[in-house]
Design goal:
The chain has 1 helix and 9 strands. The chain is an alpha+beta fold and 121 residues long. It folds into 2 domains: 30 residues; 85 residues, Cupredoxins -  blue copper proteins (Immunoglobulin-like). The strands form 2 sheets. Strands 3-9-8-5-6 form a 5-stranded mixed sheet, with no helix packed on it. A hairpin with a 4-residue loop joins strand 5 and strand 6. Bound molecules: copper (II) ion. The site of copper (II) ion has 7 residues, from loops.
Length: 121
């Protein structure tokens, strides 16, 4: 009887630790230790008006996609972040390098031309 009770308590404590760990990750994801940098990418057939996004490591990158023509999405390779439709996403640029961003909705003949580069220094 005593053992079952202790096992239950241990499970509760363990799940609390797991929840705390997940919560910590979310906070890290939402707020970086750098500046918040906002960008708007205007998408038309078949081009992003903004072809380069340059930030520093630790910055929070806030990206708004505006589909002026057609239906497009922006996916940041290497960060696994995507914005679809007229929405805003934000993520922390926590690794340096050059990452391509591409349209991730097959939008037509010029789809492959819809690329840009995220530079994290
Ligand atoms: Cu496309």
């Amino acid at each position: 009887m005593m053992k079952k009770w202790m096992l239950a308590l241990m499970l509760v404590v363990a799940s609390m630790f797991l929840l705390a760990a997940c919560g910590g990750d979310d906070e890290e994801e939402a707020v970086g230790n750098g500046e918040v940098k906002e960008f708007t990418i205007d998408a038309t057939n078949f081009e992003f008006d903004l072809k380069e996004i340059k930030v520093n490591k630790g910055d929070t990158v806030k990206v708004t996609l505006k589909n002026s023509e057609g239906n497009h999405a922006v996916k940041f390779e290497g960060y696994n972040k995507e914005v679809r439709g007229d929405k805003t996403i934000s993520f922390v640029a926590n690794k340096t390098g050059e990452f391509e961003y591409v349209c991730s909705i097959f939008c037509g003949i010029g789809h492959d031309d819809m690329v840009g580069t995220l530079i994290v220094e």
